[in-house]
């Protein structure tokens, strides 16, 4: 087992002692040094060759942000984790800009500490391998022109995530092609919970990377699910999500399209710039629907927006939680002037069991009716031709918010 070398910077001796006590029980970690001031940290840090530096913000003299800035230049391979009582967004942004990898708000548990240390260290090691070329995709392999399938609805809780996870796995099983699932519900994404991933790299790990110039760094944050699907998870905390920009997402989605045959994207329920860009880049948009009036209203507006943006032909209307006592399918189709592409039944037992086990139902309960419906949808999605506008080389989308705004005037 490769030891993780940890250096602690905090002016409070008892905090340093607490951290040492926490880490003492972690067999794969050793504390290689400590400092109580920023200056001391800068001068001592390089001797211990730490993998991870735990850095307090409020230090006498040079503060933790300035010290992080200097240390990240001196030791670019080490991962800095800010530990501070200030959980505010401003500090997080400054710390990330200064080169920190992550942020722990005091008081934290020994488990939170150990998990964060392991995760940032794993990312730093993966990135090192990536930089020396060991994990870079072979440049000679022809770039793919994958199909982007986005699940969308401005109504929360209609089943986007449930269907996205199961659909990605079903597409991989049906097509035997390379599939990546991207969780773009940046503030509250739960794909990693549904797929039972713990403590994995996330989109937040990419925010300090020069992803526009080297989008291949995205590979370092992909997690392999045992189904064969690769997964790019949403940030672990809402504060980290704030740091992700539309440019990051454009670059990573554009890149994943060249690496995978199918890019399945789960989204948050609103018209953010990120979502609108992704809808623009998508070949197919699965608009999720339910049999109640508020959802119908949201769906109608989504169809109007997508039509105004010239994306009506991408829409695949999918009804989830089909039931006999809701608005009928016939009425829904008439009201929306669009036929359903699929209707997935309500199956509380199968879905709940699968979520609680962390095993998608298309794997664990393959013969259930919900799974059969997802497989039918997957067949359709993997057969369906790509829309013309996306068959060429990917380009950065024009600003869809502006486009939408000009259309509505
Ligand atoms: N076909 C189904 N049968 C029974 N339960 C379902 C079905 N589809 C989804 N659910 C349940 O409905 C709830 C909402 O599903 P999910 O989280 O996938 O929706 P969402 O659209 O992603 O929500 P959000 O907008 O909050 O991200 C979950 O508890 C899920 O287990
Ligand atoms: Mg969701």
List SSEs in N-to-C order: EHEHEHEHEHEHEHEEHHEHEHEHEHHHH
Based on secondary structure, the structural category is: alpha/beta
In terms of quaternary structure, the protein is single chain
Order the strands across the largest sheet as they lie in space.
8-9-7-10-6-11-12-13
- What is the percentage of strand-forming residues? 15-25%
Overall number of structural domains: 2
Query: What is the number of beta strands?
Result: 13
Treating each run of at least 4 consecutive H or I residues as one helix, how many helices? 16
Give the SSE layout.
Blueprint: E1 4-9, H1 13-24, E2 29-35, H2 38-48, E3 52-56, H3 64-74, E4 79-84, H4 89-97, E5 100-105, H5 110-131, E6 147-152, H6 160-175, E7 179-184, H7 191-194, E8 223-224, E9 230-232, H8 238-241, H9 246-259, E10 262-267, H10 273-281, E11 284-289, H11 293-308, E12 315-322, H12 329-336, E13 340-345, H13 348-357, H14 361-364, H15 369-383, H16 400-408
Parallel strand pairs: 1-2, 1-3, 3-4, 4-5, 6-10, 6-11, 7-9, 7-10, 11-12, 12-13
Antiparallel strand pairs: 8-9
Bound molecules: adenosine-5'-triphosphate and magnesium ion.
Q: Summary?
A:
The protein has helices at 13-24, 38-48, 64-74, 89-97, 110-131, 160-175, 191-194, 238-241, 246-259, 273-281, 293-308, 329-336, 348-357, 361-364, 369-383, 400-408; strands at residues 4-9, 29-35, 52-56, 79-84, 100-105, 147-152, 179-184, 223-224, 230-232, 262-267, 284-289, 315-322, 340-345. With 409 residues, the protein is α/β, with parallel strands linked by helices. An eight-stranded mixed beta sheet has the order 8-9-7-10-6-11-12-13, sandwiched between helices. The protein has a five-stranded parallel beta sheet with strand order 2-1-3-4-5, sandwiched between helices.
């Amino acid at each position: 087992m490769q030891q993780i070398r940890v250096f602690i910077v905090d002016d409070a001796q008892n905090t340093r002692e607490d951290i040492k006590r926490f880490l003492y029980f972690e067999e794969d970690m050793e504390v290689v040094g400590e400092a109580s001031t920023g200056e001391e940290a800068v001068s001592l840090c390089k001797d211990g060759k730490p993998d991870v530096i735990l850095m307090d913000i409020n230090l006498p003299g040079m503060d933790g942000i300035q010290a992080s800035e200097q240390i990240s230049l001196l030791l670019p391979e080490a991962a800095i984790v800010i530990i501070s009582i200030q959980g505010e967004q401003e500090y997080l942004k400054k710390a990330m800009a200064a080169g920190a990898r992550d942020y722990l708000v005091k008081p934290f548990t020994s488990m939170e500490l150990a998990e964060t240390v392991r995760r940032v260290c794993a990312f730093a090691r993966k990135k090192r391998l990536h930089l020396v070329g060991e994990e870079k995709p072979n440049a000679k392999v022809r770039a793919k022109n994958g199909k982007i399938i986005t699940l969308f609805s401005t109504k929360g809780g209609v089943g986007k995530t449930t269907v996205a996870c199961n659909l990605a796995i079903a597409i991989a099983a049906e097509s035997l092609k390379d599939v990546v699932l991207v969780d773009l519900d940046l503030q509250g994404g739960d794909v990693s919970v549904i797929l039972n991933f713990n403590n994995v790299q996330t989109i937040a790990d990419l925010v300090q990377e020069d992803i526009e110039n080297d989008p291949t760094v995205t590979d370092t944050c992909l997690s392999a699910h045992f189904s064969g699907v690769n997964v790019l998870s949403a940030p672990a905390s809402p504060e980290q999500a704030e740091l992700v920009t539309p440019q990051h997402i454009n670059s990573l989605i554009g890149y994943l399209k060249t690496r995978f045959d199918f890019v399945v994207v789960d989204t948050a329920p609103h018209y953010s710039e990120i979502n609108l860009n992704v809808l623009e880049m998508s070949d197919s948009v699965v608009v999720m629907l339910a049999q109640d009036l508020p959802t119908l209203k949201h769906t109608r507006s989504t169809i109007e927006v997508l039509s105004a943006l010239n994306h009506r032909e991408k829409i695949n209307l999918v009804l989830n939680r089909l039931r006999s006592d809701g608005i009928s399918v016939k009425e829904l189709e008439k009201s929306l002037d669009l036929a359903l592409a699929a209707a997935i039944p309500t199956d509380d037992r199968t879905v709940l069991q699968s979520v609680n086990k962390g095993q998608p139902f298309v794997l664990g309960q393959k013969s259930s009716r919900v799974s059969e419906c997802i497989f039918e949808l997957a067949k359709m999605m993997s057969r369906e031709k790509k829309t013309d506008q996306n068959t060429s080389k990917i380009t950065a989308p024009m600003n869809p918010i502006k486009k939408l705004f000009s259309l509505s005037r």
